[in-house]
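Tutorial, part two.
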Amino acid sequence: MSDHTVCTTRPRPSRAAMSKVPEITVYFWLIKLLTTAMGEATSDFLVLHMNHYLAVALGFIGLVVSLLLQFSVKRYVTWVYWLVVVMVSIFGTMAADATHIVLGVPYLDSTLFFFAVMVALLIAWKITEGTLSIHSIYTRRREIFYWLTVLAAFAFGTAIGDMTATTLSLGYATSGIVFAVLMFLPLIAYRMFGLNDIAAFWFAYIMTRPVGASFADWFGVEKAYGGLGFGRGPVSLTLTVCIILLVGYLM
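Running the prediction step on this input gives:
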């Protein structure tokens, strides 16, 4: 090859650079917890202050629009990704609440149903793609599996959090503490007993939902129902501001 030859072939981006999800850091878990709490408070506020069906319809439209935006970008974009998580949190809460309130399904039954859906999605994802690692989210099919699983996980977390708080009469604060302990168990099992990192991630990820939802209800629900009575609106607004600040910092 002569000295005048110029290589015009561009190196292909690494698969990590093509990933559509963020790196798993402390900021990831912090924003994830905030979005789970914000989704619970926002969903309850909307349903209580407007027509139930209109609130659910708006939540669904917001979810669809955010997903279309997420699928349109070619790589991980911070604000786009977390916008989807927020909308999944809001609509996932609405789906779980509608199953109980509108359809009259007991919390235990709805918990088992959403758990079965979540497990079925994880199994189908594993069989189809061979891995459940979120670091492998660089194809459209894997991204679809990812968001369907996340939506099912949010609905399951809402249902199980409501079940422990009301059906089992643990209350919102106690439920939040129980799920917070469960959320940290995978870390201990990973560090001390060599638990598979993918299994540890998904277990902790799923548990963040009832943790955030339980504490959001504790802060927002009236004192007569076991909460602190700050109101869903103020709780939702406070959490939204915190999420915006953190996402803005990461950007």
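The CA atoms of residues 129 and 142 lie 7 Å apart. In part three we will examine how such features are distributed along the chain.
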